[in-house]
Design goal:
551 residues, Rossmann fold, 2 domains, ten-stranded mixed sheet, four-stranded parallel sheet, 16 strands, binds 1,6-di-O-phosphono-beta-D-fructofuranose
């Protein structure tokens, strides 16, 4: 017989996440700053958000405040892909509300924003919340990728909130979900509803950050899990001495996860999509870069290596980006017809008559499974990147090129045995690191205070994340000040700008200074598994990305 909970599960259940000093006391107040405005598109955003535009930054401080002490009813919803720490956000909301008034109630909307629209929820009792403290995953209430944006959906939410007598809703999601939080907050204010909407920055992709939001929760744990696996593979590569490992990493458009893993593990090659785009690097040049390393290392007797590939790479290679745009335009007009064609070869044939000559050639040169994925779109009109096996595409192209060289009598030392891996789902639901456990709990605890203060249309922030929680400062940033206008589905739309890798930033520069050496030598670094107990430098250190950004 084994216990239903592992020893680590049991030990983690009693871990008490750390809070910043201001939130540890029973005396919490909100300090409001000056009115704010977005960096660009001020007029458009003011017109779109007349009731919530210009709100001040809110800082949570210790002091006599006017935060509500009556029993509150607050909902929580998880939105988008899972990220380690989600359950701790909910635990933070729960504990904060119960501490202020034990008669407060927390409701969990089920399966993401669709649950809010349909009014599907459960009451989250202490028994439920306690089972999920410091655990990974979003399985307490599940998640979904729906959006609350159509007028009838906004109104359905309002009605549900009114029926429930809801004082606030905490939306735990990424850039799109936090934008959604602002839209819902504005709508509710415009129709006289008093339900407050507060967003929490979540995503393993690490692309929801700006001057106010230092990081999204989940990035720390997920990139540490992937780094552990990459280190293990590097150890295997230097032991078995016969495989080149091509490892694709999740992260959607941004390469933050790949960059962090590269800094942690020193692979031979790490491709960074943002650089590929900025320097207009072609697929052929990427292949040449990899082949160069393969040949040089073979000449040094090393027929093994590690290549990291960011999930979004294909969208940043100009010729494939053009192809995807052309395909999107064709699908926009003729999706049903194209999918009604009896088989894949007929679809390719038909599309070759519709695409520009260059795109038709690029499309024709891709493996069939990638051709097929490029014809799919998710509910937001995006190519489902997690299904594009770019690592296999690169393996095929590098193999072809090596064969070509060898046919000419070159690169004779090379024995190229590639293996492909995709690390994504392995890290999204891992048990949160101490950093994510503390950070997510603080985000939830702070979200509850903003609701107690009657604020709406805010995203929670926590500052000084590279320091100990004793120096953290939490508060709320008005979402309208983070918005800009971008074209989405052909329409100008207010959105929080996605933070891509900054090529002038310290993390990328640190990587760029060392990568030539890594391409040839074995300089692998082995981060090992996430540690939950032990010396602080081993178990509490934030990501290298965050440390370098704050140096
Ligand atoms: P979010 O932006 O919702 O946090 O998604 C994170 C993520 O893990 C991406 O890295 C990945 O592309 C995507 O979710 C995969 O999710 P799905 O399986 O729903 O396509």
């Amino acid at each position: 017989m084994t216990d239903s909970k592992s020893p680590l599960q049991q030990a983690r259940a009693s871990y008490q996440p750390k809070l910043p000093p201001a939130l540890r006391t029973g005396n919490i107040a909100v300090q409001l700053g000056e009115p704010t405005e977005p960096a660009t598109d001020k007029e458009e955003i003011r017109n779109l958000f007349p009731h919530t535009y210009g709100q001040p930054i809110a800082t949570l401080v210790e002091g006599k405040g006017e935060l509500a002490t009556r029993p509150l009813k607050v909902g929580v919803v998880l939105s988008g892909g899972p990220a380690p720490g989600g359950h701790n956000v909910i635990a933070g909301v729960f504990d904060a509300l119960k501490a202020a008034n034990p008669d407060s109630t927390v409701y969990g909307f089920l399966k993401g924003p669709a649950g809010v629209i349909k009014g599907k929820y459960i009451e989250l009792t202490a028994d439920i919340v306690d089972q999920y403290r410091n655990t990974g995953g979003f399985n307490m209430i599940m998640t979904g990728r729906d959006k609350i944006e159509k007028p009838e959906e906004l109104e359905a939410c309002r009605k549900n909130f009114e029926q429930m007598g809801l004082d606030g809703l905490v939306i735990i999601g990424g850039d799109d979900s936090n934008t959604n939080a602002a839209v819902l907050a504005e709508y509710l204010r415009s129709v006289g509803s008093t339900t407050c909407i507060i967003g929490v920055p979540k995503t393993i992709d690490g692309d929801m950050k700006n001057e106010l939001i230092e990081a999204s929760f989940g990035f720390d744990t997920a990139s540490k899990v992937y780094s552990e696996l990459i280190g293990n593979i590097a150890r295997d590569a230097t032991s078995a001495v016969k495989y080149w490992h091509f490892i694709r990493l999740m992260g959607r458009a941004a390469s933050h996860v790949t960059l962090e893993c590269a800094l942690q593990t020193h692979p031979n090659i790490a491709l960074i999509s943002e650089e590929v785009q900025a320097r207009d690097i072609t697929l052929e040049q990427i292949v040449e870069q990899i082949v160069h390393s393969v040949v040089k290392r073979a000449q040094a007797g090393k027929n093994y290596g590690i290549v990291l590939v960011p999930e979004g790479l294909v969208e940043f290679i100009a010729e494939i980006k053009t192809l995807i745009d052309e395909l999107s335009a064709i699908l926009g007009q003729e999706e049903a017809y194209i999918h009604s064609l009896p088989d894949h070869s007929e679809r390719v044939q038909y599309l070759s008559t519709k695409l520009s000559d260059h795109s038709a050639r690029v499309y024709g040169s891709l493996p069939q499974d990638i051709q097929a994925v490029l014809l799919r779109r998710d509910s937001h009109g995006n190519v489902p990147l997690s299904q594009v096996e770019t690592e296999r595409l690169l393996i095929d192209l590098v193999s072809d090129r090596i064969r070509e060289l060898q046919a000419k009598g070159e690169a004779q030392e090379v024995k190229f045995s590639p293996l492909s891996h995709f690390f994504g789902y392995e890290g999204r639901c891992a048990a949160p690191s101490n950093f994510d456990a503390d950070y997510a709990y603080t985000l939830g605890y702070a979200a509850a205070q903003l609701i107690r203060a009657g604020l709406t249309g805010y995203t929670v922030y926590v500052r000084n994340l590279t320091r100990s929680a004793d120096e953290w400062v939490a508060g709320g940033a008005p979402v309208t000040m983070m918005l800009n206008i971008e074209m989405r589905k052909g329409k100008p739309t207010p959105v929080i700008r996605k933070a891509l890798v900054d090529l002038n930033g310290k993390p990328f520069q640190t990587f760029a200074q060392q990568r030539e050496k890594w391409a040839i030598e074995d300089d692998y670094r082995f981060p090992g598994p996430i540690q939950y107990f032990g010396p602080s430098e081993v178990c509490d250190a934030p990501t290298l990305t965050l440390q370098l950004e704050h140096e």
